[in-house]
Amino acid sequence: MKRITILACLVTFLSVAPTFSRTADCQTRDEQVLKDRELLSENENWYYDDLDAAALEAAKQKKPMMVVLRCIP
Amino acid sequence: MCVRLIKCNSLDLQLFQFDYDLTFAAFFLSAEKTIIARYGTRNSHDSAEQDVSIKGLAATMESVLKLHKDFDKKKKWVLGKQPKKFRVDVPEDFSKLSRFDSELTYEKEVSKSCIHCHQVRDAHRQDYRDRNLPVPDKVMYPNPTPLLLGIGFETDSRATVAKVTSDSLAQKSGMKVGDQIQTINGQAICSTADVQWVLHNQDKTGNLDFVIKRPTTLNDSFATIKAQITLTDGWRAKSDISWRTSTWDLRRVVGGGMYLENISDSKRKQLKIPDDKMALNVRSVGKYGQHAVAMRAGIRKGDVLVSFDGRTDLMSETEVIAYGMQNTKQNQMVTLEFIRNGKPITIKYKLQ
What we know:
The complex is a heterodimer.
Chain A: H1 2-15, H2 17-20, H3 29-41, E1 46-48, H4 51-61, E2 65-70
Chain B: E1 2-5, E2 24-29, E3 35-39, H1 54-68, H2 71-74, H3 117-130, H4 137-140, E4 151-153, E5 161-164, H5 169-173, E6 180-184, E7 187-188, H6 192-200, E8 206-215, E9 222-231, H7 247-255, E10 258-262, H8 265-271, E11 280-285, H9 293-297, E12 304-308, H10 317-327, E13 333-340, E14 343-350
Antiparallel strand pairs in B: 2-3, 4-5, 6-7, 6-8, 8-9, 10-11, 11-12, 12-13, 13-14
Helix pairs in contact in B: 7-10
């Protein structure tokens, strides 16, 4: 069960990996920030810039949270 | 639960305390925002991502899930991982960052409205400078690398020792390649970043008590052993901060925009500078604004710095910067001696 959880989390992470990558297709920094928001705010597995909402859900599901801070290239 | 934090504007600094010079950092927290682990390590400017990996992140996740199961019974293992009282609640509370809003302006020049992680460290140091206080070692040399102890970790592991440096504190403690660090001073270790957190909060002297799982010759079996490392005064100042993005601002404050590097042995011999005396090559000088103070004072690329404020025993850029941040004040005039084309020159400028 634990391995499935880790795998699910990694798949979630990797599904948006391009936005964490320094080789994103976007040309400008601003475009990269906007693309990051577009990709993650619409991804049901991610809470975009809303720690409190994630914490409420984590309490309901009795799961820990992974909070990622990634500088936009 | 996966959470993406995009900015440091309004970041809760009473909770999120980490190495602000990373390009990728992750926290693992319980729903009550108790920190279970940190992830993210960096030792180089040019290869920012060589110390992190998907496999390493997965190994950290695995140990986080183990800790999180029956968490109430295991909280004692993460007590030391909790944040310490920080001077300000959010980065904008620092005067250096007070121009920023708490939210990003997505409509216009969004990246310019963002407080970057390294700016938190910049502002923290500037806050000491503005108050005419020396920057404490903990702020000067944050999140020390385990390499200072002589330990290199496998990037793809949670905290498996990949290298033990000869004659290092780690070797003297009996640590060996393949050892898996379980706890240090009672803190569960889920990553190299967790090791760095322990080091970050160490005093000038003290002991590090390790509990280690060591593979035995029998298949799949481990022995649990203990090791101790004693830290002596000055251990933290052996850190190299030159790779850190936040050091760029210190080059302005102390060096007037100079970027220094150690000279080669052959050049040192050519200039007849003894091995125990300062000899730092000016790699570049800033050209704009407050980073151009050195250039306007007459310092040129290729000059060799041999004395800073009368000190000739500062052997690296890190030592020059740390001396400046801990022993001088804003607007203080400082005298520097250089060798240019084989001849000594003296230049003065005002520190920032």
